[in-house]
Fold this sequence. Notes:
512 residues, Pdz3 Domain, six-stranded mixed beta sheet, five-stranded antiparallel beta sheet, 18 helices
Amino acid sequence: MKRSWLVAGALAASLPVSPLAGQGSAEELTRFSAVLSHIRANYADSVTYKQLVRSAIDGMLKGLDPHSWYLSSDDNARFNALERGELAVTGVSVEIADGTPIILAVTETSPADRAGVHPGDRLMAVDGVPTTGLNARAIALRLAGEKGTKVKLLLERGSRLEPDSVSVQVKRDAPKPQHYVRAMLMLDATTGYVKLGEFGAKSAEEVHDAVKSLRSQKAKNLILDLRGNPGGIVTEAIAMASQFLPANSLVFSTKGRQRSVNQQYRTKESGEFLDIPMVVLVDRGSASAAEALAGSLQDNDRAVIAGRRSFGKALMQTGFYVPEGFVELTIGHVISPSGRYIQRPYTGLQLEQYYAFAGDSAWQDTMRVFKTVNGRSVKGGGGIAPDVAFPAPATAPRWWTVAADSGWDRAVADSVAATLKTGAAASAAWIQDSSSWSTRLLPPLLARVRSRLAISAVVDPAVGASMARKLAAEAATVRWGEDIGREVSIRNDPDVVAAIGLFSRVAAILKK
């Protein structure tokens, strides 16, 4: 699990220590000390000052914003070891959504992937201990351990009112070398596609190499897919923006109470890919550095942003050590080139409410209208609103979870895959043969569901197409390998297809 905040640790030594703001700080500290002493002396159960102070620190940081936090020295040492790849992992990334830990991503061929853990699963317990109230860092530490040891996960799927519970045992393994560009291919004779999973240590370099490779394949247009990208290292976002923007372009700025925080981040020289038309895909899973990059390309009129409103997380943070612990504290906000605050409001919201509003902050847009370089109007106040909004993706019916857990989808895909020919010509034909998917894959699955579950299992065209596409990708993976299966998914993704259709209008959209 990578730390996904924008700036961490680099400024700790340079920040001055400020006294408590406002009048009456001495009185407030006296009140706090009095409450602490009364609890210590009179509470029904035995408690230590260490317990009370830790609870006070956690509550104090939680009251500031959703992204400031504290770790004990031992937990911080383990977390650093986890980030250095020294601990064995399960291969899942966890995010808190609606107050519940959600499996955000599952690394391909990881222990969790082999155990049947799926993105979107709700993680209810680890080794029998409920995850209620734990943040993503605490959960990551519980999931990590020594290589070869096992961890038991209790998962929920389907409707929250009538969830399906799944218990799996996962054997921890050493983390595998990670590539941040998850997919790269030519979608047609002129359109290249790059999927960036997160902003890691070499993500800008990987994107550069991917785009350069696509250009050598005659790509004249580029789709950069940032959907589901949780962010990461901010310097990588700056380096990535520098590949597509002219010299001295403002990527973003930061603003805080301390003067040292107020900085502008600009490109040092003109990028190698200044002229290639771009469409950037975002959704509610695009956060942090992904939003900073999308906002920069939008405000500089360098790319059309398409999809759905992003998460709305863009804070500048720094870490510093305290006795027996480590604090990550928000010290500023990230501002897009036009002056927009990307971070959505959090004051007055419970943590569950804050995460529940991810990608749904239109009601929080400011009245002020911001202007891009070309004079286009954009809104600020919560996340990056796309220039071209796409419909919400099709939602799978509840019985799909039962079918997947029971292996019915895999059985159907396997049976069809066995009838497919080998070779590049056969795989190329399958990639674009959506009519065959609908007739050869979907009906057998629906028949099995109706028979086993005694339900009507009627699906509308959008849901049916989405399910057929998933089955087709699975069949392709079985027959020709993971790369072809991934290509089936990407080439037939409704958002990707719609993005290709935007290139005839990119220039017009980016004008005032």
